[in-house]
Amino acid sequence: MNFQDVVMRLERFWAEKGCLIWQPYNVQVGAGTMNPATVLRVLGPEPWNVAYVEPSIRPADGRYGENPNRWQQFYQYQVILKPDPGNPVELYLDSLKALGIDFRQHDIRLVEDNWAAPALGAWGQGWEIWMDGQEITQFTYFQQAGGFDLNPVSVEITYGLERIVMVQQGARAFVDMEWGHGITYVDVLLRSEVEHCVYNFQVANVERLKQMYDLYEAEAKSALEAGVLISAHDYVLKCSHVFNVLDARGAVGVTERARYFARMRDVWCQVAKAYLAQREALGFPLLKHKQVTAVPDVPAIDPARFPQQPARFLLELGVEELPVQDLDGAMEQLRAAVPRMLSAARLGFNDVHIYGTPRRLVVDISAVAPRQPDEERVVKGPPADFAFDKEGQPTRAALGFARGQGIDVSALQKREYEGKNYVVAVKLVPGRSAAQVLAELLPELIGSLKFAKVMRWNASGATFSRAIRWLVALLGDQVVPFACAGVVSGRVTHGLRPLDSPAIEIPGADAYLDVMEAHAIVVDPEKRQQDIRTQVTALAASVGGYTPDDPVLLREVTHLVEWPTPMLGHFAEEFLQLPQEVLIAVMKKHQRYFPVMKDGQLLPYFVTVANGRYEHPEAMRHGYEEVLRARYSDAAFFFKADTGKKLEDFLPRLNTLTFQTRLGSVLDKVSRVEKLVPVLAGMTAAPDSEQQVAVRAAHLCKADLATQMVVELTSLQGTMGAKYATLSGETPAVAEAIYEHYLPRGAGDALPRSIAGTLVGLADRLDSLVGLFAVGLAPTGSADPYGLRRAALGLVQILSEKGISLSLREAFRTAAALLPVSVAESDLLAVQDFVTQRLRGWLLELGYRYDLADATLAERADDPAAALATVRSLSEWASRPEFAALLTAYSRPSRITREYAGEFPLHPEAFTEQAEQDLYQAVLAAQQQRASVEDVDGLMAVLHPLAQPIDRFFAQVFVMVEDRVVRENRLALLQRIAALPKGIVDLTQVLGY
Amino acid sequence: MNFQDVVMRLERFWAEKGCLIWQPYNVQVGAGTMNPATVLRVLGPEPWNVAYVEPSIRPADGRYGENPNRWQQFYQYQVILKPDPGNPVELYLDSLKALGIDFRQHDIRLVEDNWAAPALGAWGQGWEIWMDGQEITQFTYFQQAGGFDLNPVSVEITYGLERIVMVQQGARAFVDMEWGHGITYVDVLLRSEVEHCVYNFQVANVERLKQMYDLYEAEAKSALEAGVLISAHDYVLKCSHVFNVLDARGAVGVTERARYFARMRDVWCQVAKAYLAQREALGFPLLKHKQVTAVPDVPAIDPARFPQQPARFLLELGVEELPVQDLDGAMEQLRAAVPRMLSAARLGFNDVHIYGTPRRLVVDISAVAPRQPDEERVVKGPPADFAFDKEGQPTRAALGFARGQGIDVSALQKREYEGKNYVVAVKLVPGRSAAQVLAELLPELIGSLKFAKVMRWNASGATFSRAIRWLVALLGDQVVPFACAGVVSGRVTHGLRPLDSPAIEIPGADAYLDVMEAHAIVVDPEKRQQDIRTQVTALAASVGGYTPDDPVLLREVTHLVEWPTPMLGHFAEEFLQLPQEVLIAVMKKHQRYFPVMKDGQLLPYFVTVANGRYEHPEAMRHGYEEVLRARYSDAAFFFKADTGKKLEDFLPRLNTLTFQTRLGSVLDKVSRVEKLVPVLAGMTAAPDSEQQVAVRAAHLCKADLATQMVVELTSLQGTMGAKYATLSGETPAVAEAIYEHYLPRGAGDALPRSIAGTLVGLADRLDSLVGLFAVGLAPTGSADPYGLRRAALGLVQILSEKGISLSLREAFRTAAALLPVSVAESDLLAVQDFVTQRLRGWLLELGYRYDLADATLAERADDPAAALATVRSLSEWASRPEFAALLTAYSRPSRITREYAGEFPLHPEAFTEQAEQDLYQAVLAAQQQRASVEDVDGLMAVLHPLAQPIDRFFAQVFVMVEDRVVRENRLALLQRIAALPKGIVDLTQVLGY
User: Fold this and answer.
1) Predicted interface score ipTM higher than 0.95
2) pTM of the prediction?
3) Helix B936-943 crosses helix B914-930 at what angle (to 10 degrees)?
C-alpha cells in the first residue's frame, strides 16, 4: 500500500464507522487539532464524528529532509469521536488492520502521553501509540479546550501517516516511500521540505515576522469584537505558525515564549467562549444526531447462589493502558484500602494480593467470609424515669420511641449511661452476605483511588487515570454484580492487545491466575520485573556487556507490558562518536531501551521489551532499530551542526533570543551575570582563581541555548554547554562551572560542587528573580511560567546547604543595579519575601519544626546559610530538657512588654527592690556577653544566667504598679531582656512561649 | 450520493486513471491552481498527473450564505493531466458518469472560457462546463505559467463539487446539501461562511491588511534571494489572499489593482523561473515516468483504389468544442481557402460547401477531379551554340545538362529566349492523383487556419483554436490518408456528447450528411439557426411574448449546439422588481438565454437551447431555472443593498478606493473632475444650464463604483449609476449624464448625446491621461493596464465627431494644474503625442489616407474637431483633378527652400525680372487673403492664383545664381509661398508632393 492508498483506505474505514470525512484546513497548522473541525467542535454537548488528513507544520522539527522520519511537514490523519463510542482503542486497532498491519509481526503499545496545547487552553490524557517503538499515533481523551471542561469528552486519534506507510513499505526513510503510481516522497515533497527548512532556520526575517504576529493578533481581536469567531480563530492559527517559525529561528526566549502563549491563549479562549455561545444560541442543532445508549441494568443479587463458605474473591478492573506512575500508585492504594474496607465492613478475609498490568488492576483475596456476623445495635431512647410512669406503664415518650424504632414497646430495655438510666431499643441486625456487601463497597473502592491527574471519558462522568472498560468481580464462581463508571461487572476479561484483546471468560476466582497465564498475561508485576531483569541481563551478556542498574527504567518497562519479551537490538557504530550522555538520554527518555555498556562505555546495542509472545519478532526488532536510528540521526545532525563552531561563537545568537522584552536578550542577561559574578565573589570571599573561572563560565554559561542539541533537547542544557566548552578548548574548570550553574535542577538534584559553578548559578538566579519581579512577572496563584519558585529554592538550597553566608538584601540590590529597568523598593521587598517563603518551605522539608523555622526566619531570613545553622542549633536546643525553663523565663519579660511599641528609658538608680537590682545586674552582664555572640548556643548561654534573676524578680516585684515612673522603669528593664535574642532568633515564635 | 461520497468516488476514479491523489494546500488560495501541485508542476517537461480537493476562497463572492450557490468558500476538485492523454474531455465525462450523472437527463455543454491568472503570469484556453446551464467545471489547456510557454501542455480540470452534489441531491442551495451521515452543509459550514463574509466585507482592517501584504512581499523577495522558492510561493499566495480581502472590502481602486497584480506577477514569475532551474538542475527526475506514445503511421496511398471519375470529397475536422468566434472565423477562411487551394493545385472541383458545429469543421465538395492534368515542364539549358559544336555534336555542356535533367542528350530541344537559342529539356510531368494531392494539401489547409488566440495541446506542437481529435477525409468512399496535429485521417467520426460521442463510421463522402443527421447532428449552421429561430419564436409566443431580435446571441447559441432543442423556462416574478437591464444582462451574458418580452417589458420567462435530443428534459429545465434563480438572487442581493441608501451616500466609500497611490482616491479624482468640468464648459462655450447638470453629474459620476452591483458586474457601471441616481431623486438630465460620461465604452459604441455627459466624460479622461502619465504610468509596449489608449481614443472621438473645438494643450494644462503631483513639461508633451497617435489611428480608421491624415495632424493635432474637418476637406480636395497641379505648383517653392532653416529677408526692390515681380505681387495678395482663412477650402483658394505665377517664375528665373544677394532674395520670396499652408495643413506630407 502506498501513501495515497492508505489515506483512501482510512477514509473508507472511518466513513463506514459514521465519521464525516473532512478536509485539511487552509491555514498552516501544527496539528489537525487546530482545524476548527476538531478544536471548535469538541466544545459543547453536540455529537461529532469526523476524520480528515491534515498536513502539519512544525518548523523546529525540520532537518532539511535528512532525518529518516522527522520533517517539519508531515501528514496527520485526524479522527474525532464525540462522545466516546466505548471502544475507541479497538476501533483504532481495527483501522490498522484494515491497512494490513499484522499484530503478530508488530509490537503495538500505548505509552502514556498527556497532551496539552497551551495556546488553545486545551489538554487531554492518552497515549502515544508505538509500533515497534516508533510513535505512529497520538490518542487522546480531550478534557479541556479554551479553558472549558469538555462534556462529552472527545476521543482524538492522530495518525502519523508517513510512519505507518514506511512500515508497510519497509521504507527506511520518508524519502523512500511511494506516494502513488511509482512516485516517491522525494519526487513530491523533498525539495519543498529542504527549502522550508532553509527559510525557517536561516531566511525568515525576525522583525517582519514579529510584525505579522502583532497584525494577526490585532485582527483576531477586532474580529472577536465584531463577533466573528472563525476569522479570529484563523488569525490565532496564523499567530501560532509565525510563532513556531520565530521559535525555529531561535528568536524566542523562554520568558518571551510564555508571553506569546499567554497572548494566544487569551484570544483563543475568547474564541471558544464565543463559539459555545453561538452554538447555544442556535440551540445546539447537532444534538438531534445524539445517540442515547441505555445504561445496562445491574442484576439483583441472589445470596443463595453464592458460596456459603469462605471463598476466594477476585476483582479485575479492566482499563485502557495506565500510566506507569498511576499503576504503581493504584496498587499501593489498593494494598492499603482493601483490608481497611473489609474490616470496616466487618467481613472476614485473609491474604489480600494486589496485582497489576497496564490494562488491569487485580485484587485477589484468598478467602472472604460468606457474610458479615450479625450485629446488635442499641439505640438510646428517653430517660427511663421519663419513659415509664409511676405505675411502670410506658409513657407516650416510650411509645413514640418504640414505634419510631419499629419494635414493640415491651421490647424496650434499660441501660445506664453516665450514671443515668435510659430506655434503649436493642435490635439484632443480621449480617449481610458478602456479595451484597462487596457489591456496595467495590464501586466505592474504585472511586476512592486517587491519581495525580484524572480524566473523564463517558457519560457516567466517572474520573479515573484512564478509561475503565470492563469489570470482573467473582466471589467463588459467582459474579458480584455492581456498576461503576458506566460498566457492569461480570466474568469476562480481555486478553493481550497483540491477540486482539480476546474476550476471556473466567469460570471462578480460583481459576483467574491460571487462565491469565494461559493467555500470556502475567498479572504479577514482581514476576514480570524479575523476568525482564533476568532476560535483559542475559541478552546484554550475550554481546559481552551489562545494563547498568536502573530501577526506575526497569519499573517503567515492567509496567508497559503484560507479557514481556525482551530482545536485543543493534545500532550503527558510527553513532558512538556522539557523546554517550546524549546517546543514553535519547535511548532511555524517548525509547525506554536499556543501554548495554562495557567497562563504562556504551556498546552499539540496546535491549528493549516487547509486549506479548511472538514467533517472528524480526520485523519488530528491525522497527526498534530503525526508530533509534532516526533518533540518533537527529542527535548527530545537531552535534555536527553545533560542533561546526566554537561555543563562544554561539553567543551572538543569544542576542536574538529574548529573555524578556524589557529585560533584553539572553545575551544581555549573560552580560549582567558576568558583572554580578565578581561582586558575589567579593561578598562571599571566593578565591581569585575561582572568580576568574566563574567569569569565563558566566560568559559562556548560556551559549549552549543557541545550539541545536539544546534547542531540541532542553534537558541537556548545561551538559552540552560543558561538552561543547571542552571541545572548544575551554579549561575543565570552566566546563564544569557551566554544567554546574544549573544545579540543582529540581528536587533531589545535586548542588554545584565548584565555587565557580556556585557563583554563576547564584548570579543567574538573582538576576532572574529581581528582573522578573521588577517587570511585574512575579508568580501568581499556582502559575509560575518563568520557574521563579525553582530559582528561589535553588538559591536558598545552595546558600544554606553550602553554608555560604550572603545578605540576600545586598545581593538583590546589586543585581537590581545592573538591570535595564528601575527596581522599586516594593519589588525588592516582594522578592525577599518570596525567597523567604521558599527558604521556609525548604527548612520544613528538611524536617525542622515550623515554629523553630519561623523563629529563625524572623531574624535570619536574609542569610539562608545563617538561617539553616540557626534553625539546626535551635532545634537541638529545643530538644533539650532545660529549654522549656529557659523559654518560660524569657517569655515572662517578653510577654509583659510586647504591647509597648517604644523602648522605655532605663533608670537603674530608681530600682528599689533587691530583685530589681539583681536582675538589672544580670541583664547588664547578659548584654555585654550578647554583644560577642552570633549563634543560638551563644544566645542560650546569655539567657541561661538570667533565668533565676527573672524568676525572683517576678516573685518579688509587682511590675504593673500604679506609679507610672516605677512601672515604666521596670518595664524598661524587662524590655532589655526581651531584646536579647534580637538578630538571632525570635523566641516569641517558639511553641510553648 | 452525499458530498463526501462524491469526493471519495472522484479520488478512486482518478487514482485508477493513474493520478497521484494529493491534498489541499495549507494556505488560503483562490483556486486549486495555486497549489504547487498545479502551478509549479505544470512547468517544465516532466509528466505529472494529480487530483485533489481544494477549498477555494473568493472573498468578493461572499453572500453571507444567502445565495443558493455562490459562497466565498467552495470546494474544488482539481485534476492535472500532463501531458494531454488524448481524451481528457472523455475522461472527465466518464468521471461524471462514475458519480451517477445521466447524460440523457442533463445537458452537458462546453462553453468557451479562457482562463488567465494575472498574478501568476499564467493563461490557458478551454471551457466552462455547464450542466443544465450551471457551470460545474472549468476545463483548461494550460498554455503559459510564470510567463513560460508550457511544454507539454497540461490539462486542468476543476470541478465545483458543491454544484455537482446539489444536482445529485436535488438540493436547491448549498445549505440543503448533505455532507455525510445526515449532516448538512448548514451544519458544517454555514456559520463560518457568514462570519467570513462579515469579516471580509465589514471587519478587515484595510491598513493592517496592506501592511501584511507588504511584509509578505518582502519575505517572498528575501526567500527568492536565498533561493527558497517554495516559501516565496507561499508568500505570494498570502499576498494574493490579502489582496482578495482588500478587494472585497472595496479598498482597491482600478489602477491600484493593476499595480498589485504586477507586484505579485513580478515575484511569482521569479518563483517559476527558479523552479524550472531547480528541476533542470535535478535532471528533471520525473522524466523517467514519461510514457512515449508512438505516432501512428500514415498508410501509403494506392491511387488505383481511388475513384477514377470526379468524386465527392468530404473533410471533417473533429475538434473539441470551438469558441463561437473561432467556428465562424474558420468556416469563413475555409470558404475562401479551399477553392484557392484546389485551383492552385490544378485539381478540378465544383460546389464547395463549408459547414460547422462546435465539434467539427466540414468541407464538402460535390466533385473533385480524379487527378491533375499532365503538365509539360521546360528547363532552360546552355545556349545552343555552346551546347553543340560545329559538327552539331553535343558538347560536354549539353551532355552534362542532359544528364542533370535525367534525359538522353538526343531528347534535348531548342527554344528561343529573348532572341537567342538555348537548349532545353522538355519533360512531361504526369498529373498526380487527387488523393495524393489532397493528402499533401489538407495538412497545409488545416495549418493555414488563423484564430485570434490559438493553443497547443500535444507533442505534435500543433496550434489550433482547440484540440483536434479526429480527421475524416474521404474521396468517394476511400480515405485520403494524412496526418495532422498528431492525428491520422480515417473514416470514423464521433457523435453527440449526450450520447457519449459514439464512434460513427462514414461509408463514403456521399453518405456523410445523412449519417450525421441520423445521429442527431446538424452540421449546417444555417439550418440550426433557422430551427432555433423558429422554435424560440414559437416558445415565446406560447406565453404571449416575443424574443427581441438579437443576431449575435442567436449566432452564439447556434454555435453552441449540434442539435438544438430549445425549451421554455420560467423565473420567479418577484425578480421582475429588479431593473430590466440587469435581468437581461445577467440572462444573456451569463446564460445565453433568450429573454421573452411583451410590449417592451420582460416576462418571467426565458428560452434556452439544449444540445441534443431528449425524452425527459424536465430535469434540465429545472436546472436552467435554478441557475437563473441563483444569478438573480445575487443581483437582488446587490440591488437591495445598494438601494438601501442614496447614490450620494456611496461617495465617502470612494475615498477608500485608491485611484492611484500618488493621485489619491477615486473621490479625489471625482473632485478634480468636478473642478475641471466648469473650465471645460467655458472652453467649449457650453450653456450654463448644461454646466450645472454637468457639475452635479461629475459629483456623482463614480459613486456607483462603490455599489455592490457594479463591484460585481463592472459592465453595469454608469448604467447603474443612472438608475440609482434616478431612484435617489436626481434629475433625468443628471442621471443621463452619469450614464453617458462612460461613452464610448469601446469601438463602435455610441457617443454621449448630452452636453453634460460629454463634459464629464472629457474631464474624466483628461484627468486620467495627464495624471497617469505624470506618475510614470504611460502605456508601454502592448500593455495598457489602465486603459489609457481607450481613454485617449474616446477623447478624440468625442471631440472630433461632435465637432467640439478644444485645444488639447490647454485642456491638459488645466487638468495638470488640478493634480496633486507636479507635471513635467515632458509629460505634457508625451500625453499630447500619445493622444495625437490615437487621433491618427482614428482618422485612418475612418478611411482617410494616411498622408492626408499626417498632413492634417502636423498642423491640427491640438484640436481634434478641427483636425477631422480639415482632413475631410483635404480628402475632398485630393480627389479633385486640379489638386495635383496645385500641389505641384506648391511643391517647387517649398522643396527648393526647405533646406534653409531661417527665413531670408525679402527685398522686393531688388527683383529684376518680370516673373519675379509678378510672383511677388501674387504672393502679397495671397498673404493678405490667407490672413482671414482657416480651412482647407480657403487655403486652396489662396494657393490657386499662385499656380501660374509660380510656373512662370520657374520657367524664366534661375534661382540658384552665383550672386548670393540675388539668390537669397529669390529664396525669400519662395519661402513666403511655402509658409502659406502653415497652421492649416502641411502639404509636404501629401503624396505626390
Assistant:
1) no
2) 0.80
3) 160
Largest CA distance in chain A: 114
Q: Could you tell me where the beta strands, DSSP code E, fall in B22-147?
A: 48-57, 73-82, 108-112, 115-117, 122-131, 134-145
Helix (H, G, I), strand (E, B) or coil at A716: helix
- Model confidence at A440, pLDDT cuts 50, 70, 90, reads very high
Cell of A91: 476501533
- Gap between the terminal Cα atoms of chain B: 81
Cβ distance of A49 and B181 shorter than 8 Å: yes
What nine digits make up the cell of B549? 431580435
Phi first, then psi, for residue B177 (nearest 5°) are -75, 150
User: And the C-alpha cell for B359?
Assistant: 465539434
Name the nearest CA neighbour of B146 among B172, B123, B115.
B123
d(CA B106, CA B620): 5
CA distances, A223 to each of A716, B195, B362 (Å): 42, 9, 61
Q: Facing residues of B598 across strands?
A: B601
- For residue B195, the chain A residues in CB contact (below 8 A) are 227-231
- Answer yes or no: are the C-beta atoms of A523 and A563 closer than 8 Å: no
State the smallest CA–CA distance between residue B645 and chain A in angstroms.
23
Query: C-alpha grid cell for residue A906?
Result: 532605663
What are the pLDDT digits (tens) for B172-231?
Answer: 899 999 999 999 999 999 999 999 999 999 999 999 999 999 999 999 999 999 999 999
Residue B185 to residue B176: CA distance in whole angstroms: 7
| d(C-alpha A364, C-alpha B906), whole Å | 139
SS3 state at B515: helix
Contacts of B202 in chain A (CB under 8 A): 226
The 10s digit of each residue's pLDDT in B576-611 is 999 998 999 899 888 999 999 999 999 999 999 999
Backbone φ, ψ for residue A353 (5° rounding): -115, 135
List the alpha helices (DSSP H) in B406-524.
434-448, 512-518
Element (H, E) at B642: helix B618-642
Q: How is residue B491 annotated by DSSP?
A: S
User: Residue B51 has which C-alpha cell?
Assistant: 487530483
B204 touches chain A (CB under 8 A): yes
Q: CA-CA distances (angstroms) from residue B86 to B89, B113, B446, B492, B498?
A: 9, 20, 19, 16, 20
Chain B contact present for A219, CB below 8 A: yes
Instruction: Please state whether the peptide bond connecting residue B55 to the residue before it is cis, i.e. omega within 30 degrees of 0.
Output: no
B877-911 pLDDT, tens digit each:
999 998 998 898 899 999 999 888 889 999 988 88
Q: Where are the beta strands (DSSP E) in B823-932?
A: none
Helices (H), B542-617: 551-558, 580-585, 591
Of A24, A57, A196, the CB nearest to B230: A196
Nearest CA in chain A to B222: A203
Interface mutation target, options A188, A189, A244, A286, chain B, most CBs of B under 10 Å: A188
Q: Which CA distances in Å does B745 have to A163, A867, B35, B670, B794?
A: 61, 93, 37, 19, 8
Partnered with residue B422 across adjacent β-strands are B383, B415
Q: Which residues contact A562 (CB under 8 A, 6 or more apart)?
A: A357, A358, A359, A496, A520, A521, A522, A523, A528, A611, A612
Q: How many Cα atoms sit within 13 Å of B613 on the Cβ side?
A: 8
CB A722 within 8 A of CB A702: no
Dist CA A743 CA A758 (whole Å): 8
Diameter over CA atoms, chain B? 114
Distance (Å, whole) CA B38 – CA B51: 9
A19/B181 CB distance under 8 A:
yes
